[in-house]
Write a structure and sequence with these properties.
Distance between the termini: 32 Å
Order of helices and strands: EHHEEEEEHEH
Strand content: 25-35%
Shape: elongated
Number of helices: 4
Radius of gyration: 19 Å
Number of domains: 1
Number of strands: 7
Structural class: alpha+beta
Largest sheet: 5 strands, antiparallel
């Protein structure tokens, strides 16, 4: 079974919204699991699709599709020490008067750590060749993620993710470009 490890370095606090509300907070986060596996997986999937330019079939093979589940499982991110929690305020500004609108102040929670780690573990049967290709996609997709959670355009959630074994190499980049290039060829050209 293959297990890939990743280190997230936080350049700013982040906020991944929770599915439940909490008294006194307008935008709560899950203090027991502030960076859950489904969020990490979704970011990596989006990076594989949007930034790496892989075909939907290639992305589905690694991350799962309606036809077949992913042969990989994501863990939550766990900080090196403890998560630090704080609050952040947002206010809506009136476009005409450029003043704060009455009753439009929001209080949200945010989390912070210097670094956290998560793992992607093989849980399904794949050939050795497929496992190597999947690992390449997972390493490059994780490295392409530079923002997570909500309010990324407001200064939250800026991160860098480095796979165990070091940053993506020129060889890794060439491999991804080859996969992405193969996905852009016309069907009759293969």
């Amino acid at each position: 079974m293959t297990v890939l490890g990743f280190t997230v370095t936080f350049h700013s606090p982040f906020r991944v919204g929770s599915a439940y509300a909490r008294d006194g907070v307008d935008a709560a986060l899950d203090r027991h699991d502030p960076l859950p596996p489904d969020h990490i997986k979704g970011l990596m999937r989006a990076a594989a699709t949007d930034l790496l330019g892989l075909r939907p079939e290639q992305v589905g093979e690694v991350f799962g599709s309606p036809r077949s589940p992913s042969p990989w499982s994501w863990s939550s991110a766990h900080p090196d020490t403890e998560w630090e929690f704080s609050h952040r305020h947002r206010v809506m500004i009136d476009p005409v008067s450029h003043t704060a609108l009455q009753d439009h102040l929001m209080l949200g929670e945010q989390a912070w750590a210097v670094q956290a780690r998560y793992e992607v573990s093989q849980v399904g049967a794949v050939t050795q060749e497929d496992a190597s290709r999947h690992a390449l996609i997972l390493r490059c997709a994780a490295s392409a993620v530079h923002g997570l959670g909500a309010w990324r355009r407001r200064g939250l959630g800026w991160v860098g993710i480095v796979p165990d074994g070091g940053p993506v190499s020129a060889e890794d980049a060439a491999g991804i470009l080859s996969l992405a290039g193969a996905s852009r060829q016309p069907a009759g050209a293969r």
